[in-house]
Amino acid sequence: MNEYTDMSAAHRLELTGRERLTVSGVEDVERFDETGIIMSTTAGTLVVTGEGLHIGKLSLDGGELFVDGRIDSVTYEDQGGGRGGLFARLFG
Prior knowledge:
Number of helices: 2
Number of strands: 6
Order of helices and strands: HEEEEEEH
Distance between the termini: 39 Å
Number of domains: 1
């Protein structure tokens, strides 16, 4: 296995409809409000956008995050992209 495969094994997304998202491999939640959540995961920075988003449960010890609300998108930010782009549009 290569390094990327090892990292992705610890990271998992499970989307149920557009209302419930479970993310494993979460290292930190950088920012969140009802329209967006930005988190660091073992596979990179993950950005979730939608409406009425709520973090139902966060366990950084276990690396799990549960999100409820209307989920519009789940996107990985490029590591070299810095905090411009989508970050600026969401929270700038």
